[in-house]
Amino acid sequence: MEWTAWFRNNHRPVFYIAWILVNLVQAGTTGLFDDEAYYWVYSRYLDWGYFDHPPVIALMIRAGYNLFANELGVRLLVVLASTATVFAIDSLLEKRNDRLFYAIAISMALLQIGGIMAAPDLPLIFFIALFFLAYRSFTRNASFANAVLLGVIAALMLYSKYHGVLVIAFTLMSNGKLLLKWQTWLAGIMALALFAPHLYWQYSHDFPSVRYHLFERNATDYQFGFTLEYVLGQVLLAGPLVGWLMLWAAARHRPQSDVERAMRWTFLGIYLLFFVSTFKGRSEANWTVPAWVSMIVLAHQYLDGRPDLAKWIYRLMMPSFLLVLMVRIYMMVDIAPLPFLKKDEFHKNREWADAIKAKAGGLPVVFTNSYQRASQYWFYSGDTAFSLNNIWYRRSNFNFWPLEARTLVKPAAVFSGDDYSFFRDTVWNSRRLIGMARVDSFYSYSQVALVKGEKIIARRQANASVAPRKVKASLDLMVPDALRVAPGFNTFDTAAVFLVVYLHDNDPAMIIPTGAQLRDGLAGTMQLDFWIPDSIPPGNYRARWAIRNSIPDRPSINSSASRLIVE
User: Fold this and answer.
1) pLDDT tier at 454 (50, 70, 90 boundaries)?
2) Distance of CA 21 to the CA centre of its chain
3) What is the Cα–Cα distance from 19 to 86, expressed in whole angstroms?
4) pLDDT, tens digit, for every residue of 114-153?
5) Is 308 exposed, middle or buried (0-12, 13-18, 19+ CB in 10 A)?
6) What is the CA radius of gyration of the chain?
7) Distance (Å, rounded) from C-alpha 328 to C-alpha 342?
8) Where in the chain do CATH 2.60.40 domains reside?
9) Helix, strand, coil proportions of the chain in percent (round to 5)?
10) Which long-range contacts (C-beta less than 8 Å, at least 24 apart) are formed by 515-524?
11) Other CB atoms closer than 10 Å to residue 343's CB: what's the count?
């Protein structure tokens, strides 16, 4: 009885201590998944921005890794922020039912397992929870201090992940009177001023994140599978066993305050926005993470006082807990990857990296079309690696980091997990087969950016009733100083420049020679004048500029996607 009374009086600290201890053990005994390793490389090159994301995750990893140079260090601040996030969500509840809240938290698998992942989603939801707490204080007292605090937290949301702008936008939509307050404008000016260094980074790098996330990820052809995958994925992410109830309850709750109204707008707006986006391409399941804080709070408020519905949370809590426990154990034990899993990112990483290191035999290691493999190898082998992204893939921050110059005109071991026509030598290990080729004099120019407007127009020439069509274009070259002065850079400056046209999503790309060479534009500008083949019918196509490298028939990708208009 004494123990029961003690637990009743101390259940909150017990819950949070248990939450953080379990996640610390998990974080220190689970191999990094691919993107975590990539964000770890972020932390080696701290900057105001990166190709894919803003810099908060890099700072968090750098701080933790300075304390512990292992997986726990990579995830340390994320685990602390995860626990603080749950506490902040708890603090947002106007009607508090601790038993119900604990059951919801335990039933949401990804709230637990995702709480150890060193990825931008966790700091984002942490600052979203703080944003709503600050907004609650602001609605009660729109003081100068509360306005400044709101602006600072809004900036930190944006520095975590761009999706934070949706929370700001839907909050403003939920309460039009906010725009009549000078304190709101002060908060906005504060957030913009603090976020300005990142905006300048985007400007100085030709807005790569904007171009990639808003334009390059869109599919050409709609597939029903995009929408179906999104709907099913959201139910699983919100549960997996209680997701249907969480989403339904959150949608049913009627707001009782300005903060709950902002949460309702955020919840419905984000889920609807990314549902509509499936008609343009695949929406990743985790893009709705900014709605999680709102979903948990609104669902809790609706279920509290409705025991006929809340009973399903309690009934499914233990099966959810056991499911999460099995997943945790599977992630922690370094067993051989299961044969039915297409991709296993947690197991045998060090063994995999050691096999590649041995195969390279001391040569610099280059991976093609995988910033993830390069990052995993770097973390687990301790050797710097480079990712060469060609036209069959996409750009990454390896196009910006000063790594390419180290490998110019030197022998290199180049690895590919997907192409065995050129990479015929193979590396066998328990994780997966990977191909390798030795290149005696490696060169590439993936850090050279060929900058052109959004449209490339191929026009029929005067007095010509049929094709051919000609393209006239002027490209600006952005060449990093480290690459321009690197030994051997001029050795291969005759590398050819191509226009790569993607006729359809699943069709092979067409590589069109432009007749130009890299040295033609080293002064800053390159003039192009070439023909589009007759085999490309009139229409709109996605296209990129590319430069030849030492891997045959696989030119590197050197630009954001543009739209080719063949008239």
Assistant:
1) confident
2) 27
3) 9
4) 889 999 999 999 999 999 999 999 999 999 999 999 999 9
5) exposed
6) 26
7) 19
8) 449-566
9) 55, 15, 30
10) 517/493, 518/445, 518/448, 518/492, 518/493, 518/494, 518/547, 519/490, 519/493, 519/494, 521/450, 521/475, 521/477, 521/497, 522/477, 522/479, 522/484, 522/493, 524/476, 524/477
11) 10
User: Which of 5 and 374 is assigned the larger pLDDT?
Assistant: 374
The domain 449-566 is placed in CATH, from the list 2.40.160, 2.60.40, 1.10.4160, 2.60.120, at 2.60.40
Q: Find the mean pLDDT for residues 239-260.
A: 94
By mean pLDDT, which of 58-62, 200-204, 296-300 is the weakest?
200-204
Q: CA-CA distance, 165 to 152, in Å (whole number)?
A: 13
Beta bridge mates, 542: 502, 563
Helix (H, G, I), strand (E, B) or coil at 422: coil
Task: Name the residue type at position 424.
Answer: R
At which residue do the structure tokens 């921005």 appear?
49
End-to-end alpha-carbon separation of the chain, Å? 83
Residue 108, phi then psi, degrees to nearest 5: -90, 100
Q: What per-residue confidence (pLDDT) applies to 221?
A: 67
Which tokens is 517 given?
């060479």
